[in-house]
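Retry 2 of 3 after timeout on previous attempt. Resubmitting structure tokens to design endpoint.
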């Protein structure tokens, strides 16, 4: 996600290619003004050298977008994206996996191509996604 932060005399102007997410805005702004939160915040401050190699993306079904199912996804830029879809009871009903090196536009779901031989081992991906969904604070990727 592109982010622009400008505060002359406090934050130096620079370009940074790190992966960032909206959840990183709060810890970044708190660090910029020198405040420590009184509670545990998710995300990572972007003023230091901390880096992430993936980001958790989630969407929870709402009344305004009733036809879009709830989903959660782990996105590892340039490598892969794994997504799970859930029914109203929170049970997984579908999955997608994209090889972003071979398919950067995510046009071919590897799990739906009819070739089980090229499917990744889903157990570690599902476990990692579940762990990310439960995770809080700066220890999360």
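Retry 2 succeeded. Sequence:
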């Amino acid at each position: 996600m592109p982010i622009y932060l400008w505060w002359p005399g406090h934050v130096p102007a620079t370009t940074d290619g790190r992966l960032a997410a909206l959840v990183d805005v709060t810890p970044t702004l708190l660090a910029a003004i020198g405040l420590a939160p009184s509670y545990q915040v998710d995300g990572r401050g972007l003023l230091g050298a901390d880096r992430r190699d993936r980001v958790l993306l989630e969407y929870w079904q709402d009344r305004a977008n009733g036809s879009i199912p709830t989903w959660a996804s782990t996105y590892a830029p340039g490598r892969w994206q794994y997504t799970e879809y859930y029914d109203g009871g929170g049970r997984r009903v579908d999955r997608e996996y994209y090889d972003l090196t071979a398919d950067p536009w995510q046009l071919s779901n590897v799990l739906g191509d009819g070739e089980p031989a090229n499917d990744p081992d889903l157990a570690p991906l599902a476990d990692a996604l579940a762990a990310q969904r439960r995770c809080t604070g700066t220890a999360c990727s």
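Attempt log closed. Residues 1-52 form one domain.
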